[in-house]
Amino acid sequence: MGRDMQFKWRYTNHVEGSIVAPEVGKWNNHGAGKWLSFERIDGLVFTGSGSMDGSGSGLRLVISDEYSPNTDGIHLSESQNVRIQNSIIGTGDDCISISDGTSNVVIDGITCGPGHGISIGSLGEDQSTATVEKISVSNSYFLNTTNGARIKTWQENAVHISDVKYNNFWGTSSKDYAVTLNCSKTVACTDIHLTNINITTVASSVENTEAACINAYGEADGYLNTDMSCLHYSEIKD
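The line above is the sequence of Pectin lyase-like superfamily protein; the predicted structure tokens follow.
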């Protein structure tokens, strides 16, 4: 074979049954922090109708209750070309959290709840530069969550949020404020586009929900049940 030929391996894990972790008292300090570990793999795929049971009732893992702290369902960091789909996640923290160095992520068909929603961040702690890009969330449901889809940053100038699209959101909020765009006072959020936002509230008898904005620029169009007048208008780049 020619020396210029290159091969890319794809690692597929097909699960039909249940993978069950040892109970808390049986770890014996052997890999207690790594129930399943995959390192230095390009192209890891999980398929099948099976399940993974972390036996985490004593550790508040896997599906957990809404009062369990720091129990992200799935956390991505320094990851590229990831797809998460057709999953049910219940936790006391983010159903899915995405941090620095992550790009090209497709999240589709997720049922999240209880939990804090699907979150990017927090980014920019101690004025550190952070990059997260090309994240797509679609066809997902948030049930009894404190948030829906959100981006979290520290109030500093290390992170600029831009080119964010919220399309076709509908549902019910426990508060009058259905959209919050509180951006850094030193670095504005730009190119924020909202289309077809239909979120009602059970908190009062008002017909329309409201939005709260700080230093946010973009545009809102389509059907809007939420008052987006706080968003500073700016033409969105193609």
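Note on the example: DSSP finds no helices and 19 strands in the chain. The two ends are 45 Å apart (CA to CA).
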